[in-house]
């Protein structure tokens, strides 16, 4: 009987983890090219990419790179491409970073000269439901100006987004039945 209760507890725990994952995105920084020095050597390539995406608390970003690094820094260090006091540092070539709070996150390459060549990015993280702002009006993305009409320096959407959130309806229904089933088993 104890094994039966343990199985139910494990099942309920897995459901909690599934719900947490089902409401988050994992976004591949830079899409196919990954985290590299931009070809056109401008400061806005990654910021343009970030502006095409909507980030919220709980989302993660994935950096794919070779012979480089990723740093999270404060705004002043971002503006000056100063890599001496990072908040976060990784150089493993396959870095996941969770956006764990609302606000701005400042990313730079830690390789000498790369930040000055445009390998840096600011991500704005929202702490709002997907479709409404605190005033109840449409999301701020809908109110933002349209992108420039000229050809972009990168494809219109250079990131690969793994839309785990698209499974919400399925996971909600599954979760409902799972909770009902576990209540039936426990009761």
Automatic annotation (TrEMBL):
PANTHER family: BLUE COPPER PROTEIN (PTHR33021), EARLY NODULIN-LIKE PROTEIN 5-RELATED (PTHR33021:SF289). PROSITE patterns: PHYTOCYANIN. Its main location: membrane. Belongs to the early nodulin-like (ENODL) family. Keywords: Disulfide bond, Glycoprotein, GPI-anchor, Lipoprotein, Membrane, Signal. It is found in: Endomembrane system; Membrane. This is Early nodulin-like protein. It is a lipid-anchor; GPI-anchor.
């Amino acid at each position: 009987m104890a094994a039966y209760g343990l199985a139910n507890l494990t099942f309920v725990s897995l459901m909690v983890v599934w719900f947490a994952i089902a409401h988050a995105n994992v976004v591949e920084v830079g899409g196919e090219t990954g985290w590299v020095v931009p070809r056109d050597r401008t400061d806005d390539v990654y910021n343009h990419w970030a502006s095409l995406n909507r980030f919220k608390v709980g989302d993660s970003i994935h950096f794919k790179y070779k012979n480089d690094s990723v740093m999270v820094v404060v705004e002043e260090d971002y503006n000056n491409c100063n890599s001496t006091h990072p908040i976060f540092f990784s150089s493993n070539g396959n870095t996941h970073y969770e956006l764990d709070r609302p606000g701005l996150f400042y990313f730079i390459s830690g390789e000498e000269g790369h930040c000055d060549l445009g390998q840096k990015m600011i991500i704005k993280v929202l702490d709002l439901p997907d479709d409404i702002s605190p005033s109840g009006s449409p999301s701020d993305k809908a109110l933002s100006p349209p992108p420039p009409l000229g050809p972009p320096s990168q494809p219109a959407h250079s990131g690969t987004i793994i839309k785990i959130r698209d499974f919400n309806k399925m996971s909600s229904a599954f979760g409902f039945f799972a909770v009902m089933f576990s209540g039936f088993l426990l009761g």
